[in-house]
Amino acid sequence: MSIRKSTRVEVAKQKKEEKEEEIKRKKEEEEKECLRQKRKFNYLMSQTEAFASFFLNKKRKVEDEVGELEPKVAQAASGHLLHLKEFEQEDGKVAQAASAHLLHLKEFEQEDGKVAQAASAHLLHLKEFEQEGGKVTNLEKYEYQSVSQPKMLKGKLKVHQLKGLNWLVNLYNQGINGILADDMGLGKTIQSISLLAHLAENEGVWGPFLIVTPSSTLHNWTSELSRFTPNFSVLNYWGNIQERKDLRKQLKKSNVIVTSYQVAVSDESFISRIKWQYMILDEAQAIKSINSQRWNILLGYKARNRLLLTGTPIQNGMRELWSLLHFIMPTLFDSLAEFSEWFSKDIESQTGVEKDQIDKLHTMLKPFMLRRNKSDIKDEIGSKEVVNVFCKMNSRQKVLYDEIIESKMDYENIIMQLKKVCNHPDLFEKLEPSPPFSLLCVGENGYVGTRAGGVGINLTAADTVIFYDSDWNPTVDQQAMDRAHRLGQKKDVMVYRLITLDSVEERVIEMANRKEAVQKIVIKGNVFKGSYLDQ
Predict the structure, then answer these.
(1) For residues 458 and 485, what is the distance between their CA atoms, to the nearest angstrom?
(2) When comparing pLDDT for 88 and 238, which is higher?
(3) Is the pTM of the predicted complex or chain greater than 0.85?
(4) Which site among 76, 389, 420, 426 is 20 to 30 Å from 209 CA-CA?
(5) Which residues contact 9 (CB under 8 A, 6 or more apart)?
C-alpha cells in the first residue's frame, strides 16, 4: 500500500471516528434534555397542590382552545410541551412572541423524538392527576444535587454565592429557567459566570452562551469573565457597524458572546441565527415592558435556557413582573389577563389582599426566583441608615409655587414645574435650564446621578449619599444607594433625603412608599432565599 493511500485510509478512519463520536455526543445530549423536561414537569407538579391545580387549569384550557390555534403554531407546539399550548388571545403581540418562542424551541428538538415522547408523557401525567381528584401522586422525586465550585473558576465564591450556584445548577438540571433576584451588590455576575463554568466543566456544555447587558457594564462583564474563567473564548460583540461586521466571523467560534441590549436589537438578524445554550440578561428590568421592541425581539431568540439577573424584579407594578415570568416560562405564564385576575388587582390596590392570595403568589414564584438581601450577609457589609431632612421653602419659592398652581398648565407639566421650584428655583431665570444632579455621593468619587442605579456602576469609596431630588419610583433611588452600599464597602453608609415641606415632594415620597409596599408584599422576607440550600 502506498503512503498516499495509507494516509487517505487514516484520514477516512479518523473522520468516521469523529462522526461516530459526534453522534454519540448528540444522543447523550438528547437523553439529558429528555430527562430535564421530565424533571421540570415533576418538580413543578410537586411544589404544592395549588401549583398543580394551576397546571390542571392550563390543561383544560388547552383542550377547549387548541383547535383555534393556527395550524403552523399547533404543529410547532406539538413537538414541545403539549399540555401548555394556550396563548394570550387579548394581546396579539404576546401571542406572536409566544408562538415565535415555541417555534425556536422546536428547532432544538427536531432531531429528538424522545423529547416529543416526554411531552406526551406529561399529558398522561396531567390526566392521571385529574383522575386522582387533583392530588399529586406517583411523581418521581428529584434528588437535590450539591455541587462545589468549578475548578476552572479562579478566585473563591462567598458562601451565599456558592449557594446561588447550587440553586442555578439544580434549576438547570430540572429544565427550568429562573430569575436571580439577589439584592443589588451581592454578586449576581460572578454567580452567573460560575454556572457557565460548571456547565463546561461538568456537563461538557461550552456554549455558545449569550450575555446581554446595559452598555455601561459591557467592560465589567468581559473583565470578570477574563479574570474568573480565562479558559473561555469570549467575544466582545459591540462597536460601530463595521467593527461588528468584522466580529461576526467569530460569533460561532466563541464560547461566550457579550453584547448590549441595543446591539442585540439592531443585529437581531445575525445573533438570532445561533442556537444559544444559555441566554443571560443582566439588569433584566430592561425588558419590563411587553410592548417594547426589545422585549419582543429578545423573546424570539433561540435559547435552550434563560436566566434573568435583576435586583428589582418589580418596580412600578405587577405587569412588569409578569413580563419577566413570561420571558423565562412563556408557555406557563402565558396570559397577562389571567395573572392580573389572580394577583395584580388586589395587590396593587392594597385593598382586600388576603393571606391565602399572597401565599398562592409566592407558591407560584418560588420555583423560579432566588433572592437574598444584604441583611442575610450583614457580617460582610456595613450598615446603612436613611435620614429624612425636611426643608422649608423661602419666600421666592412660595411665590413661584403659588403662581404655577394657579396657572392653566396640564397636570403633568404642573408637577414637573413644582418639583423644579423645590429643587432648582434659579432655573426659572435661565433660558436653557440644564438637567439637575439628582444624587450626591460624598467621597472619593464625587457626584453621580440617580440614573447610575441599574447600570452597574459601583462607588464603594463613597460612604455618604444625599438625595436632592427624589424619584417617583423607589427602585431608582434604591439602585443609586446600592452603588455605594454593596459588597466591598468597608464603612457604614449614611443616606440623607432632602424633602421640601408642604410641597409636591411629599406626594412623591408618598407615592414611592406605596410602590415600595407592593414590592415588599411580592418579594417578601425570606420566602425566596432558598432555605433548602442551607440543608
Answers:
(1) 9
(2) 238
(3) no
(4) 76
(5) 1
Three-state DSSP state, 335:
coil
Which one-letter amino acid corresponds to residue 101?
H
Segment 225-284, tens digit of pLDDT? 999 999 999 999 999 999 999 999 999 899 999 999 999 999 999 999 999 999 999 999
State yes or no: pLDDT of 63 exceeds 80.
no
Cell numbers of 402, please? 403659588
Q: Please, is 349 exposed, middle or buried when counting C-beta atoms within 10 Å of its C-beta (0-12, 13-18, 19+)?
A: exposed
Q: Alpha-carbon distance 495 to 481, whole Å? A: 8
Report how far residue 375's alpha carbon sits from residue 40's, in angstroms, rounded to the nearest whole number: 32
3-state secondary structure 232-281: CCEEECCCCHHHHHHHHHHCCCCCEEEEEHHHHHHCHHHHCCCCEEEEEE
Q: Is the dihedral of CA 384, 215, 150, 325 positive or negative?
A: positive
Which residues lie below 8 Å from residue 392, measured CB to CB, with a gap of 6+?
A: 500, 501
Cell numbers placing 377: 450577609
DSSP, residue by residue, 425-471? GGGGG-SSPPPPP-EEEEETT-B--GGGTTTT---TTEEEEEESS--
User: What residue ranges define each of the domains in the chain, with the CATH number in brackets?
Assistant: 21-140 (no CATH), 147-372+527-534 (3.40.50.10810), 379-502 (3.40.50.300)
For the ranges 103-107, 213-217, 495-499, which has the lowest average pLDDT? 103-107
| pLDDT bucket at 81, cuts 50 / 70 / 90 | very low
Residue with cell 418579594: 523
Reference 332, options 46, 49, 52; nearest CA is 52
Which phi and psi (to 5°) does residue 500 adopt?
-80, 125
pLDDT category at 138 given cuts 50, 70, 90 is: low
Residues constituting the chain: 535
Residue 100, pLDDT > 80, answer no
Instruction: Give, in order, the Cα–Cα distances in Å from 40 to each of 46, 172, 533.
Output: 10, 9, 19
* Segment holding 325, helix H or strand E: helix 318-328
Question: What letter does residue 410 receive in the DSSP assignment?
Answer: -
Per-residue cell: 261: 441590549
Alpha carbons within 13 angstroms on the beta-carbon side of residue 302 total 16
| Alpha helices (H) in 3-138, listed in sequence order | 3-45, 49-65, 71-78, 92-109, 113-131
Handedness of CA 322, 327, 331, 332 (dihedral sign): negative
- pLDDT of residue 143 exceeding 80: no
Closest among 111, 78, 44 to 333, alpha carbons compared = 44
Place of cell 460569533: 251
- If pLDDT is split at 50, 70 and 90, which confidence band does 524 have? low
pLDDT for residue 449: 47
Q: Which three cell numbers stand for residue 514?
A: 406605596
What is the pLDDT of the chain when averaged over all its residues? 75
CB neighbour list of residue 286: distance below 8 Å, 6 or more residues apart = 214, 261, 294
Q: State whether residue 179 is helix, strand or coil.
A: strand
CB 30 within 8 A of CB 112: yes
The stretch 289-299 carries a mean pLDDT of: 89
